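Bug #77: duplicate submission created two jobs. Keeping one. Sequence:
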Amino acid sequence: MSVAWLGRMALAVAPILWVAALQEPTASAACVLVPQAAGLERGLERRTIGACTSAPATAPNGDVVQPTTTGLIVVRVLDGHAAFTDGVRTWVDGPSGIQRRMNGDRFDWETASRAMAPAARIAGTGLSLDDCTEPGARLLPGERESCAELLGEAIDATERRASGPVLATGKHHVLSDWRGVPVAYVDDGVNAFAYDGTALFYVDRDLVFTYPGDFIGWVIDGVIRGGEGDAILVIDGSPSAPTHPPASAEPPRAPHGAPPKRGQREIPSLQPPITTAWSRPDHAGIPL
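Kept job's structure:
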């Protein structure tokens, strides 16, 4: 499976969030990876960490950051550890070697270290870098200008990566399988229910999880696709879906309750290249 193009990403590594924006990332012959990333370079596949696209730079909080063709390397001033993010997951070369986690999560030793460090503030504002780079952050015009002045084009990365539901809130979305049969629907932009009222999964930006936390796949151009790129469900007749019979009429909807509590999420796979094949929902872990 090849690494999909990452033009949109948001980094969440301790101690402070930092985002790198790469419009058309290409490797630069003039740059080399920052020396502290040697452990990551040895421990990760080359397709994961990519090649550097520019020289390392020092972030306002003292971290050393360096964009690559697939993500961003950060050498943290707080603890000296190097980390790499692809915009969804983070690999940290820490006390126990290289460990992988979701961007928004923290290892216990990271949490303890971060608690000891004050949050960096942007001069003249009450904003931290976390405020500027949090995906989906709602900034006032003046605040956005302050963030943009400090981060330059980096702030735009939060706009290019899906920062909220990729399905419109308040619109009734029909999800059909390879037969063209509606098997689920989404009304709030997040939670998918079967027509018998069963809660099936939820969508977080462009990621799809079951409520216990199993990773199902990605929403790519109106199609839910699994880890191999095969289509699982097509949303509202997306034209990018593989060929399938015409969609049939929706069945009656039974009442449903509140969505279940969400469990600890599985780390997603890399976003795959799309295929023209279908995968049955039950094969993808959707409990239909």
